[in-house]
TrEMBL record:
CDD domains with a match to the protein in the record: TM_PBP1_LivH_like
GO MF annotation list: transmembrane transporter activity
Similarity remark: Belongs to the binding-protein-dependent transport system permease family. LivHM subfamily.
One BP term from GO: amino acid transport
Alphabetized InterPro entries for the sequence: ABC_transp_permease, BCAA_transport_permease
The organism's place on the tree of life at top rank: Bacteria
Name used for this protein in its record: Branched-chain amino acid ABC transporter permease
This protein's record includes keyword Cell membrane: yes
Gene Ontology cellular component terms for the protein in this record: plasma membrane
Amino acid sequence: MTQMIEVLLSGMTQGAVYCLIAIGLSLVYGASRILNFAHGSLYTLGGYIAWYFVVGYFSLPLWLGILAAIPILAASGVAIERVIIRPLRSSANWKVNTIMVTLGLAFIIENGLQLVFGPGTKTIPAFAEGVVTMGGITLSWYKIWIFVVSLGLVGALEFFLTHTRYGQAVRAVSQDMQGASQVGINVNQVFALTFALSVVLTGIAGILLAPVFLISPLGGWGPFLKAFVIVVLGGLGSTKGAFVAAFILGVLEAYIIFFLGSNWAMPAWLVMLIVVLMIRPKGLFGVWEN
């Protein structure tokens, strides 16, 4: 019984980090109707930025490495939106064009990381070591911190979206882009903000998981695929749906790995996705279009 509880808690921890990645992807889609195929590469970029500060050159503790990476990640998100995405909006097939361009951007980031850091894998030391045992249940302190930090960031984002002027502007653009523009909201500024938030969230997820999994230049496609499944399952553009779906699939993954092995985890995710979409084609909470 205690082992089953440990698997459940491990799945919830994974779900919390998946939630960061998926909400970042969902946030951009909800505001701008763009599916960013470079999202997984930006997850990897976060891990390498933290490695640079923590292991490579400055020997900072991981929590300081995260703080140092945040402005770089945010600036990267704004640059992607302003330099790459915004000029495409005036084209006739801009949605298709953004898919192709962000896919190309993913390959550029991957190859750039290989050139700068080499093709080999890297890792980052955790900022908390050891385990805690309660009632026969054993958990690592670092996984507890991952869970707390991830939920804290999700909570902070929800507070930002519901209780601040900029957050309410993001929600307004997500609900009605033209209406938001007519009442004076700077839509382009909102797009840049959502890209910044998205890259920060997925980059931090990459940093948090770096001590658990190795960092690799090509390691972003797995997280992107999982984030995509979570977003579709929860409902495109719905942060609430991404939150719920991330925990469902995180726990499912933990039990599948425990009983059947890691090779069955992704097929189980896809089966869950197909079953849900057969019942609710729009996902758990989402709407395809405004």
